[in-house]
Structure formats: C-alpha cells, structure tokens
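EI: anyone free to look at a 302-residue chain?
SC: sure, send it
EI:
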Amino acid sequence: MRGREKQHRNNEHDYDTHGGAFLISAISTGGDLPRRPPNYPETALILWRRKARPLLCALDNSIPVPFCSIPGDFDGAIFVPTSVLIDNAREGPGHAALYEAPRRIIRADTPGEVSGALAALEAARKSGAHLAGYFSYELGYALEPRFAQMMPGGRRVPLLWFGAFDQVRTLEGREVEDYLDASATGRYRLSEPELTMSAQSYGTRFARVKSYIAAGDIYQLNLTLKGRFRVEGDPVALYRDLRRKQPVSYAALLRCDDFTVISASPELFLRIEGERVVTRPMKGTAARGLTLQQDNEIGQWL
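SC: here you go
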C-alpha cells in the first residue's frame, strides 16, 4: 500500500489512509467497531487480528485479495464481503437468494437521513437494481412525527440499510450449507441473556393491555420484551448453527463492514405481488370456524 499517509479523526476513533485503503482501529477484540470514515469503500474489507486489538482494512474493487503478505505482528487476515442472504430452510432441503458485491449502499443512521435514503431506494429500484437489506423497528419513529420524541438514544445500527445489487444468485439444497461452511471463520460464544422487563413489570403491563381491550380502545397489542446478550466470535457460524437447530421459512444473514444482522422468523410480515399484499402473522390469529357461532367462540378464546 503506497501513497502519502494521512491521519484523520472520526467519532473519537483514529484511522490512517494508506493510498487506496483505510486502516481503522477498533476498540478491542469482540468490541464495537467505529463508524464509517468519509469515502469508506463499501464492497469488501480485510479483518486483521492480533492479540491487542483488531484492525480493519477496507478495500475497493480495484485492489486484489490478498493484496499483500501478512505482517509479522498480525495473526491473520479474513476477507469479509458485504452480502445479504435471504434464506428458507423449511421447504425441502432449503433454498436461498444470495446478494453480493453491491454497487451502492443506501443507509440512514439518523432521522434526518431517512427521506433521502427512501428516495435513493426508489431511484435504485427504477434503475433495475436488486435491493436487499432491512428497515429497523425504530424507523417508525422517524416516519410518524408524533412519535419522533420516542426515538431511543444510543442506537448502534442504522435505521435502514440496503444494498443495491446488479444480480442475485440462487442457492439450492446443500449449496446453502456449503456457502455457510465456507464463510464461517471460527467459533463463537454467547453470554447469558438478560431480559429487559421483570415478571412483575410484565404482569402489570399485561393487565393494562387487557383493560384497553375490554374498554374497546384496542383489539390487539403485541406485548413484547427484549433479551440482550453479547456475541463474541464468528456471527456466520452462529447463524449456521441456528439454521440447523431451528429452521424457519423467513431467515436472513446480513454482513457489512460495521455490523451483522441475523434474523430467523417463522412468520411473513408482508409480501407484495402486483396489487396483492400477503401477510402471515402468528400473533393473535386462529383459523376461521365453519359457522358464525364457531367464529364467535374462537374470538372469545383469543
């Protein structure tokens, strides 16, 4: 890597530019990665590991991999491409859609960036790009002005993130497992989960929800809580093992430079087919009865 070195500061993380690549110091092994510096390449990166801390070396497509030998003070190098795997492990041996090497990343980290990102998504769609990514739950606070003040602070991932891809590759059966086996780089460790709500607090909220339903203010509410835990190691190996032990019809593995999303859901939120919208939720639903009386009985049971 040649070129004049420059020192920059971005969100209290130092990084150096060496020609066409960046070296970024992370906090510690298994710790949080710094935010993307200006003009940060989107498509690939090298993860160098050493005992003290990991270093990220982001590359653009013009630099071959591997582009140089491993320096003596590093343990190794791993190529981590930006990719999105949309996976169905329930139907037969399974099949998946794999999106790799995006031409562009469209993301919104703050509420002020949302409208521009949505416009960019629509423009990319009209240009013929394949779009794959996610909308976060918290995005709703940015879309409804009355909820804007409820936006949680300290968020660590974008409100929305999508890659615009030129093509999509279909993986069938064993190809999905082979891809995950080849992409997994090591082991992982999970901490004990911590619930964000106590049993007593949940019971109080549950009683309040029932009172709202009885009063006719609402007819359904999903009272949920979060289980927080830390992951150290390889997220691809974690997704692979989760897929084997709990196969679902709607799963995804999103890998990018500064975070990874693992999703495994048994229910379909929305599928748009022309003018037809399909949803297959699990919460608060039951099969229709054969008569009006059976419908009423099922409704009372719910």
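EI: Residues 271-302 form one domain.
SC: 👍
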